[in-house]
């Protein structure tokens, strides 16, 4: 995608109907990180500052929220992509909008790491995980525990506890938008956003932003007969599309059927 066409695309994405206020740059930034286009995140930041950052306080909030979205994208898209994205963002961020080591932390993660009992953080993460996965949360976590190494479940608990469930900068719905943005090029995390308080219209709007960015960067649908659908979409995302977003996301019974499909596929392998 050319640098000259990106501002026009961002302008259009910012005005996507039903997209929650101050969320477009989070979704765009995480999607570009997932697509491994870290340098273009700088344009997202600069455009957000230009259009939405009137005061110094609002500019600082944009910078912090965008950085937090890229931190929360690390468990989804991989730490190397978040590292590249954050350093690319730092290069264009004024010194006054950077948080320095050993100074005030808006997320309070350093405090949580050293001064808060681990059990409390892990319980918060489990609550957040249960909220996202709803009726199938125990099954999903159990499958990770039985993946051949219990360390997969432990890793998930640590990520949800210390990274994803921290809502000091991004609320639960916005955190779910980060998951959607990070996973739609690869998977999908749509129902969890509803479980965290987003509306169907908002989820559709977030998904539209991500898909339009994927298209702009050359991702194509693999074909109607391909289970992975868009680029690297998983079966779960395709099932949501086939059944209709509102019905699929609002019905726990359908999620159970999706998990049953996964179970059957695993048995056939």
Describe the structure.
Helix 3 crosses helix 5 (79-91), helix 7 (118-133) crosses helix 9 (151-164) and helix 8 (137-145) crosses helix 9 (151-164). The longest helix is centred in the first third of the chain and has 22 residues, at 56-77. The chain contains 15 helices and no strands. The chain has helices spanning 6-14, 24-34, 38-52, 56-77, 79-91, 109-115, 118-133, 137-145, 151-164, 172-183, 190-195, 200-216, 235-243, 245-250, 252-268. Residues 224-266 have low confidence and may be disordered. By secondary structure, it is mostly helical.
Name the descriptors.
single chain, mainly alpha, 15 helices, globular
In short:
This protein has 269 residues and is mainly alpha-helical.
- Gross morphology: globular
> In terms of per-residue confidence, which ranges show pLDDT below 50 for 5 or more consecutive residues?
224-266
Strand fraction equals under 5%
Give the ordered list of helices and strands.
Answer: HHHHHHHHHHHHHHH
Please count the beta strands (DSSP E, at least 2 residues each): 0
Radius of gyration: 18 Å
- End-to-end CA span: 38 Å
Largest sheet: none
Structural class: mainly alpha
Number of helices: 15
* Helix percentage range: 55-70%
Average pLDDT over all residues: 80
